[in-house]
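Q: what sequence does this backbone want?
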């Protein structure tokens, strides 16, 4: 019987590309370049400090220059891995493509791991929060309150997206501003789900469904996130690494995949969390 042939470079490329297509909240992050360091190390992600207000000028009095500087936020380098065993007999005789299925499942697991790390860091560091009335629903007024947390900096183009648990999709379908055709903020395509996006709030801000760490199982409530551009960052060590290991005695091949990266919130006032219980 012919054995299953795994080409690591091809398998790795396929998993990596599928991961990019399956991540949700991490798609809204800036790629800060390849990281250097070891798993468990803490990286310092750069954050620019805000300048103070403009000065009222007086004739003959020079402006005092203010130094542009950075602060930083520590993010831990993490490594996630997953192995899958493919038997020659199954791959060659069973229905369906076992290798392709393994690629898809490993990619989904890695994508979820990346999003999970991102949400954990947001929950730990975000400073903007709005309490919702209910644990498993969201209203237009509550979303408006979330946007109000950004003051007068609410231009649509400044926002990367809104991420919500799938339990909240019906809430959007009930919002006049989201679905009624005669309201200017409603997009005609809202309600169609494409790559996890159910439509656009305020006309152009994407609303993404993600069930990765967007439900607090202890409090039994959903968590939603309004995310500004440049608020999130990610540094991959490399693409997903794939290593096959032949088990000749079993007539099988074990395929191990691992992914090393650091990610998280780099603008503490760049994300607003909406949920019922605000600590």
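A:
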């Amino acid at each position: 019987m012919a054995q299953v042939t795994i080409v690591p470079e091809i398998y790795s490329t396929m998993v990596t590309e599928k991961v990019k297509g399956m991540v949700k909240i991490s798609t809204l992050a800036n790629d800060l370049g390849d990281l250097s360091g070891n798993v468990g190390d803490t990286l310092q992600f750069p954050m620019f400090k805000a300048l103070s207000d403009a000065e009222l000028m007086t004739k003959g009095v020079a402006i005092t220059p203010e130094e542009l500087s950075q602060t930083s936020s520590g993010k831990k380098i993490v490594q996630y891995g997953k192995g899958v065993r493919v038997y020659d007999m199954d791959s060659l005789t069973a229905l369906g493509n076992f290798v392709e299925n393994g690629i898809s499942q490993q990619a989904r697991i890695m994508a979820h791991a990346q999003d999970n790390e991102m949400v954990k860091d947001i929950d730990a560091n975000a400073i903007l929060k709005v309490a919702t009335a209910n644990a498993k629903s969201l209203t237009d007024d509550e979303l408006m309150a979330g946007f109000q947390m950004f003051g007068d900096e609410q231009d649509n183009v400044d926002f990367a997206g809104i991420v919500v648990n799938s339990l909240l999709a019906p809430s959007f379908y009930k919002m006049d501003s989201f679905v009624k055709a005669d309201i200017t903020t409603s997009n005609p395509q809202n309600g169609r789900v494409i790559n996890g996006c159910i439509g656009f709030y305020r006309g152009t801000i994407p609303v993404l469904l993600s069930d990765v760490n967007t439900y607090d199982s202890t409090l039994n409530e959903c968590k939603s996130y309004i995310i500004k551009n440049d608020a999130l960052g990610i540094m991959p060590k490399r693409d997903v690494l794939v290593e096959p290991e032949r088990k000749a005695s079993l007539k099988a091949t074990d395929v191990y995949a691992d992914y090393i990266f650091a990610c998280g919130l780099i603008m503490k006032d760049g994300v607003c969390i909406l949920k019922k219980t605000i600590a």
